[in-house]
């Protein structure tokens, strides 16, 4: 009698085994999609699930279950995968902030705007003695440290630049007027030049107020 | 160690037989044991009792028999097996003799209890290790994410400046204006280029050693400020000429005159 | 000079921004946990989530949500991860990576470190009754299952070993306190450091302390 029978391994006779309940199949598909290194085709699912499973239905249920969740069950060609919800892609980026010192051109331009605002680009160039590149102005605008002021009522109606609230915030100033004048800068040792007798030492913005020296404390 | 009664009772005591078989098995596979404590633990299992009720005396006897057997079979035993044998022999004698009130140190019972504790602890750790390894393990029974999304790091530069930077920058610009008058001072400054320009044609004429100071241009020797800058520039220019291979310099002594001649 | 201007600077004040609703935070945590292979610490979550998020509550909700599913949200020390349900391991046969077989010495050493941590090498050797080879410790370190703990404040200041988060993750333990049979072992006094009689430090044997970490404090 023994001659005619096939291998005695399990799964020899499919009808002997009942497929797991659908909820269980769904769990299985979920685990497989999660743990597999790439998208999984239905064929592969059939091969990996216990006999008699119907991955299509399980997949459909699973897809619905993950609708609106942080991850979704998505179809990738002929295969399926669990992927981050598209609207949460930003979480997968990590911003590394790097602080860098402002370039000399930028800080000088900024200083001139702060001391002379509202000031036109031509005026900045005149004071600096060199041209101001577009990039420098753009950078300062982008940093939100300067912004456009009123147009100057002169021929060509050039735009002017003024410093922003964010600028004052960053430098701990109440107003741009609080910036120390030249003589105070010198008193604080920030001017390393020898004063030239008789030259414009008594500068425009000097207003002899007190309490500004503490700006140098840092 | 011949006084150790071999564990071979005549009667068919099943426990004793098992102990003997265990001891023999031990001998066969000495290398497979992790030291004397491991052997003792294996031997103690033959007593089939709670390790807390173990007879350390019997255990000592079994171990000594094991060592003796190994020796007769000329099996190489590591030193710690022999150390353990010596210690157990000592313990055995202490356990057999009535306690000597004069004797210092821990009692034999304490030592025996500690050995029992060690065996029990090792056994407990083995059981714990087995339970640990029987848990559902990651990568075998439980799995992590197959597809991982790398977090892309976005580098964002934040520019900063301090108030001092700002003020220094402004001061720099403003003092540039103040320096402007100094530009006239350049009349009192002989530059290296000027000195070089002046010396190039002259050097061709000087075949002999000539005092460097004679190269100072006219009108630059009286005023100390002018003489200083002219001297410095001329000296630097002469070094430049030496570097170019057109001239030679010499100085006979410290502070002696520096002399220059054309290189031939 | 228009010193004080209206402050439109964004991101100036973090408190201006409200944290996303809890359901949304849950989605975000879900996406991050799904996307990451290793356990993610609460600290890392806070760093990646928008300002003001409270991952703890979201994690707790998520854990409940995934109870009984094909994948579960599990705690690993101070971190969290998603892992497939243990009963579905059989489906993953093709994902099984052949792990290096640990020697008996390595397994025992690992167990001793887990149950007795922090523990010195000398203590491991005293428990096992044999020397611990360098390779055994190295292997466990390399597998990231053990790491160095604090030095013991005893003569020679020996290093101690403790188990890692990867260890907990591997064996599905929330904390080292969840080691199987730990309390029984402790109750039986088998985790005590009992000095050898006659070695003179019997008086140190006083503590009936709890917690593995206290067991070796002297």
TrEMBL record, chains A, C:
Gene this protein is translated from: scpB
Annotated spans, Disordered: 190-218
GO-annotated biological processes: cell division; chromosome separation
Keywords assigned: Cell cycle, Cell division, Chromosome partition, Cytoplasm
Pfam families in the cross-refs: SMC_ScpB
Name this protein carries in UniProt: SMC-Scp complex subunit ScpB
UniProtKB/TrEMBL annotation, chain B:
The organism's place on the tree of life at top rank: Bacteria
InterPro entries per record: ScpA (IPR003768)
Protein name, entry field: Segregation and condensation protein A
């Amino acid at each position: 009698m023994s001659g005619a029978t096939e291998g005695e391994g399990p799964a020899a006779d499919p009808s002997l085994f009942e497929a797991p309940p659908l909820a269980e199949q769904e769990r299985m598909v979920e685990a497989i999609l999660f743990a597999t290194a790439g998208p999984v085709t239905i064929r592969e699912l059939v091969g990996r699930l216990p006999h008699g499973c119907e991955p299509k239905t399980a997949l459909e249920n699973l897809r619905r279950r993950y609708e609106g969740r942080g991850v979704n069950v998505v179809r990738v060609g002929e295969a399926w995968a669990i992927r981050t919800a598209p609207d949460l892609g930003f979480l997968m980026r990590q911003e590394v902030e790097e602080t860098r010192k402002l370039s000399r051109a930028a800080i000088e331009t900024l200083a001139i705007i702060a001391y002379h605002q509202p000031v036109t680009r031509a005026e900045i160039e005149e004071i600096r003695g060199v041209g101001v590149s577009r990039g420098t102005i753009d950078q300062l605008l982008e940093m939100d440290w300067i912004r456009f002021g009123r147009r100057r009522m002169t021929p060509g109606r050039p735009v002017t630049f003024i410093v922003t609230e964010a600028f004052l915030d960053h430098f701990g100033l109440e107003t741009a007027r609080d910036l120390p004048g030249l003589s105070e800068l010198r008193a604080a040792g920030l001017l390393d030049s020898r004063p030239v007798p008789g030259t414009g030492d008594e500068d425009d913005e000097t207003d002899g107020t007190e309490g500004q020296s503490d700006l140098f404390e840092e | 160690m011949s006084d150790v009664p071999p564990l071979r009772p005549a009667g068919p005591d099943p426990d004793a037989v098992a102990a003997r078989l265990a001891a023999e098995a031990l001998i066969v596979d000495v290398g497979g044991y992790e030291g004397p404590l491991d052997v003792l633990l294996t031997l103690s299992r033959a007593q089939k009792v709670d390790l807390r009720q173990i007879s350390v005396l019997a255990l000592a006897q079994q171990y000594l028999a094991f060592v003796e057997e190994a020796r007769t079979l000329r099996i190489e035993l590591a030193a710690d097996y022999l150390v353990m044998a010596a210690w157990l022999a000592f313990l055995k004698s202490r356990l057999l003799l009535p306690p000597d009130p004069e004797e210092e140190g821990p009692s034999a019972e304490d030592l025996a209890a500690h050995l029992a504790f060690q065996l029990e602890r090792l056994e407990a750790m083995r059981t714990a290790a087995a339970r640990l390894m029987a848990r559902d393990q990651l990568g075998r029974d439980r799995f992590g994410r197959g597809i991982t999304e790398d977090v892309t790091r976005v580098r964002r530069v934040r520019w900063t400046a301090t108030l001092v930077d700002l003020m220094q920058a402004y001061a720099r610009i403003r003092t540039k204006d103040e320096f402007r008058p100094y530009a006239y001072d350049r009349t009192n400054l002989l530059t290296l280029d000027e000195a070089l320009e002046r010396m190039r044609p002259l050097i061709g004429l000087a075949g002999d050693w000539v005092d460097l100071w004679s190269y100072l241009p006219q009108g630059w020797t009286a005023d100390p400020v002018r003489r200083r800058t002219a001297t410095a520039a001329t000296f630097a220019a002469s070094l430049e000429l030496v570097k170019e291979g057109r001239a030679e310099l010499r100085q006979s002594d410290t502070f002696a005159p520096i002399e220059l001649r054309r290189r031939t």
